[in-house]
Amino acid sequence: MKRYLKSTAAALTACFVLTTPAHAQVADNVVQLDVLDGGRTANGTYLGALRLTLKDGWKTYWRAPGDAGIPPQFDWNRSQNVGDVEITWPAPDVFVQNGLQSLGYANQLVLPVEITPRNPAKPVRLRGEMDLGVCKDVCIPETLDFDHTLDADAGRNPAIAAALAQRPYSAKEARVTAASCHLSPTSDGMRIEARVTMPSAGGREVTVIEPGNPTLWTSEPETTRQGGTLVATSEVISASGGPFALDRSDIRITVLGANHAVDIQGCSAG
Fold first, then answer.
1. 203: left (phi over 0), alpha (psi -120 to 50) or beta
2. If pLDDT is split at 50, 70 and 90, which confidence band does 24 have?
3. Is the separation of the CB atoms in 88 and 114 below 8 Å?
4. Residues 207-251: tens digit of each pLDDT
5. How many CA atoms does the CB half-sphere of 90 hold within 13 Å?
6. How far is 209 from 216, CA to CA, in rounded Å?
7. Cα–Cα distance, 232 to 222 (Å, whole number)
8. Where do the Thiol:disulfide interchange protein DsbD N-terminal domain residues begin and end (predicted)?
């Protein structure tokens, strides 16, 4: 727990201590957001994407950014005729700076979104905000507005297709044959040991464990290999400091390798 708090404090220092002067030092338009059109799908949904274009050397973060990252947040509330929004995250890169690991994207991110309209006969307008962190030598928070009426007749968009191709493999695609999670109490929360039977994803494998509850924090997992089984251990604590329960079906395990990434939804008792 002390190691976890130390790394978290260091991450906050790295990301926020220089926030105020950074606005004076960094030129405007460090990051630009555009909405891309991909037209209607066969099942009646709209395919689009949020494209972030960053200045050279700048990066932004994945949904689970690690100890040194700032998680993005989305507000779709001002949109019109939007029933559901499903985001497909391309596999992130792994960055290590000042001994802290973060997960994200450099220079550009195309984030595919599939929108289910409330009324299929009416147009869909995406209007809202994206809060994110962008980092180079310093980290600064950004709030980006978007307002775009989707083009139902748009054709295939190569940028969206390329981003979808960069998604992690499913467990079936990656030939995962078993995924279990052993849970045991610690003085501060709960220790989780995930064991995933699967072929190597290539090179050094980095594991991310998401508990499926935004009030819970997980430390950076330690990942090892025991033959055909990947073993990742992490500690989970509650933001309130109180007791909590973990639902194994909500636990999400992502393995990032040199060849591909793997997305595993849920794990059995181990």
1. left
2. very low
3. yes
4. 999 999 989 999 999 999 999 999 999 999 998 888 899 999 999
5. 25
6. 11
7. 5
8. 48-146
pLDDT band at 270; cut points 50, 70, 90: confident
Q: Which CATH number fits domain 169-269: 3.30.310, 3.30.70, 3.40.50, 2.60.40?
A: 2.60.40
**CA gap 62, 253 in Å, rounded:** 14
Backbone angles phi, psi at 99, to 5 degrees: 80, 0
* pLDDT digits 0-9 by tens, 77-120: 999 999 999 999 999 999 988 888 999 999 999 999 999 999 99
Tokens for 207, please give them: 């594991």
The Cα 210–Cα 89 span in angstroms is: 14
Token digits of residue 107: 């220079």
